[in-house]
């Protein structure tokens, strides 16, 4: 219906400025030479760096960092003969890319406009006769839904056709019909192979480009008026970035999304209280299809050093150092392992980074495989997306610490063993200290069968008498790291990315801390499988923390998908998450709600005391409350004639603990409903920042139906409502959009006038009747409709300027073949009609003003 929920959005200038890609010389970049020098060098102790610092040439360009060059040459990230091409490409600006939202109702029209209009006109106008394609679909993206443009922003503003294209992109992006996203960032969700019924966890989701893509996949084949069986749970640890995520995903208008704010490595398990499992389940628990929150698909797009995005964020050149990757390695493993434990057996997990560093990539993948002890396999996806040029994962790499190159853990000095862990080294090089020759401790690494090798993952643990170290002597061939994918910039003119795809074959082995792991000390980074008992929930507190990592995050976390234009203010109708840490309850204190002693069922009890519990649980976060006011729901159903077949019970939620003053009611899909119910029964472990599709908004007018259907809720509701609908001819529809308010008499169609006067006062829906011969057209994917207000003598539209602009644009796209009737001159309103319309508008404004409170 093309009117997904959108507020007028103000760009966050300060945010944008800090992320702008300024292709400047070092002098223009600001900051003293000394600052730049410090930023560009990594390992102050290193003799290499002393040499670099004394070499003035490195300062000449902001897009150069000798430590970077040295590091990646040594890692043989590309063959030596390709180095110059690789580095030149990294120094050139990145072409803009965008994706068409495949679940948008007009995605085919947008595709056709790009293929048949812009592709040709831009080629003629924009490229000055050059061979380079102005815009082109990315060959590896299914159905031509992703595009790359070779224009810079300056070029886009240069002439009229480019300007028209730019405006088109901006509008469609704001509406949610397209998303600007770096080409390589689109890859990980494609390898996740998401199906509409899947439960998908996006562990580090902000600002949400990939979440949006995952939602598209879930919604792709949903019929109008119906919802897919799956859902996406998008999580991010950073509160402010969570707000960006909420804003970004709002463009999708989905009832199948939950946004949470947790550290991914401590993401709650959300399973039913043990005492319920002993047979005392409340009826609600028995009704639940799920008793633990597990996922069919997990996306682990972890925080990383982000050097794959140098083309888009050249400031990274100055900041880059080898320590960034080393510092993140531990956290990346923790997040990935948590993801793996939340993945269903048979499910798929994608691990990805926008970093080129093997310490953040292959080393993490190798460690996941070691820890999972054969219950997980790295999938060979070489036959998937064959047109995507990628390179196999590295089998060998080195670790650089404090300017020193280390080829095996043996070379790590005692003082550096907290920071440099065995898991950072390639297979066969992860020498682990024998703790004081503690035989029991080394045995604790062995599988239960007592053998000294784990045939499932090919790891042999042997004692090296010369060094008194235990060697994890993996055959390189047993960890098929070549199945990882590395996308390098010069292969297809993109950024760089790393992707690994896992398949969970069986429950994870129980993971225990080895006795000789000191608390707070990352002595080994390795855990070995002890037994293969099913793990319901791995307590992530067992996984050691790398203290330094957290401190580095704010600097090195780079998401890089968020184009400047996508960084927007929060919508005004939902409170942003509270960023004051003092108001946050420690998320690790996720107590379970004990079964009630008064005989009431768990959910009943939770509902009865919801005000107290929900407000106390996650301070700074609005509670999620099932809305069960039957009288109000009945009134809504009666007013709009909503068909009984439309599921309401348990699908409506509010975010206000004062049920009597509810302003907005949200709709959730069956899948989300189940997760919310499970979460309540499991003690509200999820810190839910946003959930549900805003469906109804309360009106003050007594005689106008209690709630109006929102623009974003209308596409879902429309096929199910039987009252308060008007069908307008193209001319009338366009007319009312342009004037925003029209007196009944000014509608061209007599039938419309008659029907309008028969409606109840208040909210109504005006549907574009493309085929004027039908009085009640079939509602389908192409239906254009708009929420309006039926006043005493007029119809007034109740949507934003942006919605109107989009609808007019869509009508133009649809009606190109009927331009004779459609593009009639606007009828000027008569003075008398104008007066009547103004009176109705005033009435409407009073109503709107009454509703400006947050809720
Ligand atoms: C590479 S970005 C994710 C980009 C995102 N997947 C997208 O496509 O838009 C990494 C994200 O991880 C978040 N993050 C950092 N540490 C985290 C943690 N411990 N748990 C969860 N998220 C974390 C950051 O706030 C950042 O938004």
From TrEMBL:
GO terms for molecular function: tRNA (cytidine-5-)-methyltransferase activity; tRNA binding. One of its GO terms (biological process) is tRNA methylation. Signal peptide: none annotated. Residues 558-568 have a biased composition (Acidic residues). Residues 1-16 have a biased composition (Basic residues). The keyword tRNA processing applies. InterPro entries: MeTrfase_RsmB-F_NOP2_cat, MeTrfase_RsmB-F_NOP2_dom, Pre-PUA_NSUN2, PUA_NSUN2, RCMT, RCMT_NCL1, RsmB/NOL1/NOP2-like_CS, SAM-dependent_MTases_sf. It comes from Nicotiana attenuata (Coyote tobacco). PROSITE patterns: NOL1_NOP2_SUN, SAM_MT_RSMB_NOP. Residues 86-505 form the SAM-dependent MTase RsmB/NOP-type domain. This is SAM-dependent MTase RsmB/NOP-type domain-containing protein. Keywords: Methyltransferase, Nucleus, RNA-binding, S-adenosyl-L-methionine, Transferase, tRNA processing, tRNA-binding. Belongs to the class I-like SAM-binding methyltransferase superfamily. RsmB/NOP family. It is found in: Nucleus. Residues 44-55 have a biased composition (Low complexity). Residues 18-43, 443-458, 520-533, 548-557 have a biased composition (Polar residues).
């Amino acid at each position: 219906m093309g009117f997904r929920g959108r507020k007028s959005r103000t760009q966050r200038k300060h945010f944008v400025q800090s992320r702008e890609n300024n292709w400047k010389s070092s002098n223009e970049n600001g900051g003293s030479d000394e600052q730049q020098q410090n930023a560009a060098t990594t390992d102050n102790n290193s003799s290499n760096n002393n040499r670099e610092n004394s070499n003035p040439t490195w300062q000449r360009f902001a897009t150069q960092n000798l430590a970077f060059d040295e590091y990646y040459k040594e890692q043989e990230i590309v063959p030596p003969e390709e180095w110059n091409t690789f580095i030149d490409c990294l120094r050139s600006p990145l072409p803009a890319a965008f994706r068409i939202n495949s679940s948008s109702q007009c995605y085919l029209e947008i595709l056709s406009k790009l293929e048949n209009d812009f592709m040709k006109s831009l080629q003629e106008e924009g490229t000055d006769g050059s061979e380079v394609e102005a815009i082109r679909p990315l060959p590896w993206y299914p159905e031509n839904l992703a595009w790359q443009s070779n224009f810079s922003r300056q070029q886009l503003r240069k002439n009229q056709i480019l300007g028209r294209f730019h405006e088109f992109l901006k509008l469609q992006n704001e509406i949610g019909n397209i998303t600007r996203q770096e080409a390589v960032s689109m890859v990980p969700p494609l390898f996740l192979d998401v199906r509409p019924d899947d439960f998908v966890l996006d562990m580090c989701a902000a600002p949400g480009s990939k979440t949006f893509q995952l939602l598209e996949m879930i919604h792709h084949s949903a019929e109008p008026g119906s919802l897919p069986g799956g859902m996406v749970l998008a999580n991010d640890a950073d509160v402010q970035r969570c707000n960006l995520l909420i804003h970004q995903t709002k463009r999708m208008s989905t009832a199948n999304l939950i946004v949470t704010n947790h550290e991914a490595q401590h993401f709650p398990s959300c399973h039913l209280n043990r005492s319920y499992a002993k047979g005392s389940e409340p009826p609600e628990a028995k009704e639940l299809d799920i008793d633990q929150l597990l996922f069919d698909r997990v996306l682990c797009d972890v925080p990383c050093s982000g050097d794959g995005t140098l083309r888009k964020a050249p400031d990274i050149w100055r900041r880059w150092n080898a320590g960034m990757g080393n510092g993140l390695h531990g956290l990346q493993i923790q997040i990935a392992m948590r993801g793996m434990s939340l993945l269903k057996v048979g499910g798929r997990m994608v691990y990805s980074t926008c970093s080129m560093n093997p310490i953040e990539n292959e080393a993490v993948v190798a460690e996941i495989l070691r820890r999972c002890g054969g219950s997980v396999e790295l999938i060979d996806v070489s036959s998937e997306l064959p047109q995507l040029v990628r390179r196999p994962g590295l089998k060998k790499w080195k670790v650089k610490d404090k300017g020193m190159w280390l080829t095996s853990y043996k070379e790590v000095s005692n003082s550096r063993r907290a920071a440099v862990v065995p898991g950072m080294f390639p297979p066969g090089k992860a020498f682990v200290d024998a703790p004081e020759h503690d035989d029991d401790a080394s045995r604790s690494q062995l599988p239960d069968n007592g053998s000294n090798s784990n045939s499932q993952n090919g790891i042999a643990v042997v004692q090296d008498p010369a060094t008194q170290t235990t060697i994890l002597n993996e055959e390189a061939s047993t960890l098929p790291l070549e199945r990882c994918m590395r996308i390098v910039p010069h292969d297809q003119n993109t950024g760089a990315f790393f992707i690994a795809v896992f398949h969970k074959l069986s429950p994870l082995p129980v993971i225990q801390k080895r006795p000789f792991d000191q608390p707070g000390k990352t002595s080994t980074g390795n855990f070995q499988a002890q037994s293969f008992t099913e793990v319901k929930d791995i307590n992530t507190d067992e996984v050691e923390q790398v203290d330094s990592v957290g401190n580095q995050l704010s600097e090195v976390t780079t998401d890089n998908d968020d184009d400047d234009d996508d960084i927007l203010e929060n919508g005004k109708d939902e409170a942003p998450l509270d960023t004051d840490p003092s108001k946050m309850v420690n998320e690790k204190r996720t107590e379970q709600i004990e079964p009630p002693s008064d005989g009431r069922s768990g959910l009943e009890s939770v509902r009865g005391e919801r005000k107290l519990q929900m407000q106390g649980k996650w301070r700074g976060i609005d509670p999620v409350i099932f809305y069960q006011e039957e009288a109000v729901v009945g009134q809504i159903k009666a007013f709009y004639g909503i068909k009984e077949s439309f599921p309401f019970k348990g699908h409506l939620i509010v975010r206000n603990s004062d049920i009597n003053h509810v302003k907005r009611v949200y709709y959730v899909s069956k899948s989300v409903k189940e997760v919310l119910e499970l979460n309540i029964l499991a003690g509200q472990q999820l810190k839910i920042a946003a959930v549900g599709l805003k469906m109804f908004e309360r009106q003050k007018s007594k005689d106008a139906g209690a709630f109006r259907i929102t623009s974003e809720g209308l596409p879902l509701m429309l096929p199910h409502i039987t009252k308060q609908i008007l069908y307008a001819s193209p001319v009338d529809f366009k007319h009312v959009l342009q004037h925003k308010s029209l007196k009944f008499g000014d509608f061209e169609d007599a039938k419309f006038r008659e029907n309008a006067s028969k409606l109840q006062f208040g909210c109504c829906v005006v549907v574009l009747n493309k085929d004027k011969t039908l009085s009640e057209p079939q509602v389908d994917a192409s239906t254009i409709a708009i929420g309006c207000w039926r006043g005493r003598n007029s119809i007034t539209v109740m949507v934003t300027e942006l919605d109107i602009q989009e609808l007019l644009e869509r009508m133009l796209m649809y009606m190109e073949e009927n331009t004779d009737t459609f593009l009639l001159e606007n009828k000027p309103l008569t003075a008398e009609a104008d007066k009547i319309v103004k009176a109705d508008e005033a009435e409407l404004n009073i109503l709107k003003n009454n509703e400006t409170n947050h809720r």
